[in-house]
Each structure stands twice: as C-alpha cells, then as structure tokens.
Amino acid sequence: MFRLFTIFLLFSAVYAKHEIYEGASVYELEVENEAQSKVVSMLEDQLALDVWSHPGPSRSGMILVPKNSKEEFAYKLRLAGIKFRTTVDNVKEQLDLEDRLLAAAAASSRIPSESDSKAALPLDRVYQWEEVEAYMQRLARAYPDKVTLVSGGISFEGRPINYLRISTTNFQDSSKPVVFMQSLLHCREWIGQAATLYALEKLLVDNTESDLINNIDWIIVPTANPDGYVHTHEANRYWRKNRKDGLFINDICMGVDLNRNYDIFWSTESSNSVCSDTFHGRAPFSEPETAVTKKILDEHTDRIELFLDIHSFGSYVLYGYGSGQLPSNGLALHLVGVLIGEAIDAVKLRTNPNYTVGNVALTLYPASGSSQDYAQSLGIPYSYTLELPAYRGSATLTGFLVDPEFVEQAGYETWEGIKAGARFALNSYRTRKGIH
Ligand SMILES: [Zn+2]
C-alpha cells in the first residue's frame, strides 16, 4: 500500500510539472499601425501577458497567453482588427515534449567523472546549474595554468555567481585584449548555455586554434542568473527574471529583469511594475547578478574589446543603444556585427533563417538598462547581444524550448561567429593600443 502511495506521489509530481501552462496558448500576431501596437501593449499590461517577441511593422509577434485570458485576448484583438493565429494550442504539451527529449539525450551519454579531469563534456544537451558549476571546477583543476574560477558574488537565494577567467598569462599581459561573454542572464533562454560551454571546450579541452587562447584573454560567465535558472528547471520553464522578493510583504509578484537593471538609460524603456517581465528593479545595479558584470567591466574596461551577452530566441546580432541612438563607432559596430552574423550563417542549418544585424531599438524594440548598452557606454568598442535560434526551425518546439538535436550545432555555429568577432577584436585592440 505504502509503495503504491509512493508511486502515486511520484506520478503526481511528474504530472504536476508545467501544470500552470495547461491550456495556455502561443499566438502569432501582426499589427498594421501604431493604434494596433498600442492595443497589444495595453493587453500585455492588463492581462499580464508574456510577450516573447513584439510585433512590429515588418515582423509578427509571439505572445504566450494563459488559459483564463485567451477568450478576452482573442475578443479584444478581433475588436481592434488585429490579425492573429494560434501557433501552440497547449503550451504544456510542448513543455512535456521538451522534457522527454532532453531526458533521452541526457540518458544517452555520460558526464565524465571527477577523476577524468580532462575529458570533454558531451555538448548535446542542457545542463543543470549544479552540473555546470561542477564542470567549471573541473576545468579550473585540470588547467590551473590557464583557468581561474572566480566567485563574483552571491545571488539573492545564496548561490555563488561563478565565472571563469581564461588566460595563458594570468591576465597580466595587457597587450592582449579581453573577450567577455555571458549566458542565461535571461534564465529561460537555455540555448545560450550551449554557446558558453562550447567556447570553454574549444578554448581548453579541445583547442585546435591556439591563437585564440595565446593572444586573447577570456571571461566567461555561463550562468549569469543562477536562481532564475534553477527556477526554470524546477518550477516555471518560462521564468525570465531573477528571484528577488517583491517590493512589499506578501507581494504576489517578484523578480527583476536583469537586462533592464544596468546603469544606462535606466528605467526609461522598462517597467516600473514588479509584476512585469521587464521590471527594472529599485535602482540601477540593485541586483547581485548585475553587480557581478559591473565589477568585471570596471576591472577590465580598458582591455575588454568585445562584449557578448548571449540570449535567445531569434537570429540576431544586436548592438546599442537601446534608445535607438547609435554609438560614435556605429558603422564599425555594424560591420563587425555583420562579420559575426556571416560567420554563423556560413555554417548554420538551412532550416533556420539568416542572422539579422542591427541596432536593437531599430531592429526589435527600445530597451533601457541592458548589459550590452552598459558595456558600450563604458567605451568598450564592440558590444553585442546575440539572439540564438533555440530550435531547428521545425514545428515541434517553439520559442525558448530546446531541441537536444540542435544544442551542439548551436554551440558550434555560434562559436564560428564568436571567433570571427574575437579575431577582429584582437587586431582592433592592437591597432588602438599601438601594439605591432
Ligand atoms: Zn533575453
């Protein structure tokens, strides 16, 4: 009897997963004018909708709508004459499918043990936070002359925000530029992890291009938002923010959008409401996670030539500013963005679209307080947000969900872009500093 009960409990735990998304749908919609855009923004606030991508004049938008709001949402769209269609009927079914695919991928290969210190990590799956932490520690032990594990700070829930410094000269040689990259600042954008883990592998475990590590120092933050990331695995797959408590006791809402919390145009193109997915926090750098980036950038402002914040989804290389104003090196910024995008396009899957390169506000939408803008504002010449496609362009999984069949490819193709950017950065740094 007891055993039966245990089985029942286990079953309900599995069954209960993603329950909040039972009957929720994803809609794709097109707006034709400013008035219709306003209706969408209004609905976004009123119904607390999760806007995955904003509809623009030449681009359809994708919005996740909870089951209980679907009727009102559809009614108001029709009233405003906005064209829409359902792309995912029941979001929970897709989440269950992603779980099954990822579990099968995880079962098919083995993570190297502690003693196997220099063994490669299988790159065809999504790793839990603890697994990535263990891997970083393993790399630091296996390559003590090249890798330093740094604890940048402690998250709201008490997790260390760790990153790796990679250098053959312990960061002492200022004739080398630094390339910075981070992933999972928006924790649901899981595919970003593929890019940072792939980079670690190709710099350390399986390095076939020694110029990348001999001439360049690297700072890599695989999990920029650990609390949020754990939450996406354990409770809510579509969580985007960190896990900071609400402003008031018993506040039903919580979390700060970390990519609106940096001190650049802070609060001008983000939300003041803690319930919003773009809540900018109480003050610039109020969050321990963004403070980590600030500290790194402050320490290495002079040497960071290329700054990359890895997100999903879409296929974009985006640069600042989020206000729509271009940095003074706008043309060069665009050209290097094109280099990165073209290098990815050359090896990407044919089923995925080409990368689009552009100013974030003009290409997608205005945004303030982003890490990319903050880095740019400090004078770091080449600062980008990469939006990776999260899936294979197939209809099985959409949006942020990850198809394990695509993970290794995502790491590989993005690395091609990163290498192109890093090599350009090396030359431009040397020119800028008069190093020959
Ligand atoms: Zn993002």
Q: How is this structure best summarized?
A:
The protein is α/β, with parallel strands linked by helices. Helix content is 38%, strand content 16%.
Q: How would you describe what is shown here?
A:
The chain is of the alpha/beta class and 436 residues long. It folds into two domains: 20-89, Alpha-Beta Plaits, CATH 3.30.70; 115-433, Aminopeptidase (3-Layer(aba) Sandwich). It is 38% helix and 16% strand. An eight-stranded mixed beta sheet has the order 5-6-8-7-9-12-10-11, with helices on both faces. α6 (192-205) packs across α13 (404-433) and α10 (330-345) packs antiparallel against α13 (404-433). The longest helix is centred in the C-terminal third of the chain and has 30 residues, at 404-433. The model is unreliable at 7-12 (pLDDT under 50). The structure holds zinc ion. Zinc ion binds at residues 186, 189, 311.
